[in-house]
Design goal:
By secondary structure, the chain is an alpha/beta fold. About 35% of the residues lie in helices and about 15% in strands. It contains seven helices and six strands; from the N terminus they run βαβααβααββααβ. It has helices at about 20-25, 40-50, 50-55, 90-100, 105-125, 155-160, 180-195, and strands spanning about 5-10, 30-35, 60-65, 125-130, 145-150, 200. Strand 1, helix 1 and strand 2 (about 30-35) form a beta-alpha-beta unit. Helix 1 (about 20-25) packs parallel to helix 7 (about 180-195). The model has no long low-confidence stretch (mean pLDDT about 95).
Length: about 220
C-alpha cells in the first residue's frame, strides 16, 4: 500500500481525526507527524529523517503550514507553554526575552518562504496538498506546487466555537475541530484529490459546523 504523509502543527496533531479519515478515503497508509506549537523546522526535520524506501513509497504529502513566527527549534517543550502567561520557569522567561529582544519577523517570514521553495524543488514529483493553519502564509504560499487550500484552518476552528477572541491554547478538540468538521475537512480534501491538479482553491465552508463566519474576514 502506498503512503500518505501528513506533517504540521496542532491542526493535524490528532492522527485519529481528519488525517486518518483522509488516508482511509484515499486507500493509503498514514504516516502522521503533527505537533502542537511547533515551527515548520520541526516538520522539515521529520521529513529529512524518514528512510528513503518509505519516501519512495509515498504518493501524497500533506503540509499543514504553521505560523512563520514560531521559534525554529526541535525543543518540543516550547509548544506546551502558554506564551501569554506570566513566566514561571527559566524556559518561560527565555521565550519572553527571545520575543522581546531577538525575534525578527521579516527574517522568519523569509525563512518560511525558502522552505516553500525547498518543498517545490524536493517534492514536486509527489501529489502535494497545502493547508495553512493561519492566514499569515496564504499570500506567499500561493507559489507552492500542488493543491493549495486558501481557507485557513484557524478561521474554521474559531468560527466553530463562535468566539470573538483568538484563543486556542489548551483546546481539547482533535485538531481544533469537532468530529463533524474533522470528517468534513477529510471529505473535501479527498474529493479534491480525486481530480488532483495544481490549483489554489477555497474550501466549501457552508458544509462545516459553524456558529459564526466572522473569522473568515480576518483583520
Amino acid at each position: 500500500m502506498k503512503n500518505i504523509i501528513v506533517v504540521g502543527d496542532s491542526f493535524c496533531a490528532s492522527s485519529d481525526g481528519w488525517p486518518s479519515i483522509l488516508a482511509q478515503r484515499l486507500g493509503l497508509e498514514l504516516i502522521s507527524h503533527g505537533q502542537g506549537g511547533q515551527s515548520w523546522w520541526n516538520a522539515r526535520n521529520f521529513l529529512n529523517n524518514i528512510d528513503r524506501e518509505t519516501l519512495t513509497n509515498t504518493e501524497v504529502m500533506v503540509f499543514v503550514h504553521t505560523n512563520a513566527g514560531r521559534i525554529p527549534t526541535n525543543n518540543t517543550q516550547l509548544g506546551l507553554i502558554d506564551h501569554s502567561a506570566e513566566p514561571a520557569t527559566e524556559i518561560d522567561k527565555a521565550i519572553q526575552l527571545y520575543y522581546k529582544y531577538i525575534h525578527e519577523p521579516e527574517f522568519l517570514n523569509w525563512s518560511q518562504q525558502q522552505w516553500f521553495l525547498e518543498i517545490n524543488q524536493q517534492w514536486c514529483h509527489k501529489k502535494l496538498v497545502h493547508l495553512h493553519s493561519f492566514p499569515w502564509s496564504v499570500d506567499y504560499g500561493k507559489s507552492l506546487v500542488g493543491l493549495n487550500i486558501l481557507t485557513n484552518l484557524c478561521s474554521i476552528s474559531l468560527n466553530e466555537l463562535g468566539i470573538d477572541r483568538f484563543e486556542l491554547f489548551n483546546d481539547k478538540r482533535a485538531n481544533h475541530l469537532n468530529d463533524h468538521n474533522n470528517n468534513e475537512l477529510a471529505c473535501q480534501l479527498s474529493t479534491l484529490m480525486q481530480n488532483y491538479a495544481q490549483q489554489t482553491v477555497q474550501l466549501n465552508t457552508d458544509e462545516f459546523d459553524l456558529k459564526t463566519t466572522r473569522w473568515f474576514n480576518w483583520n
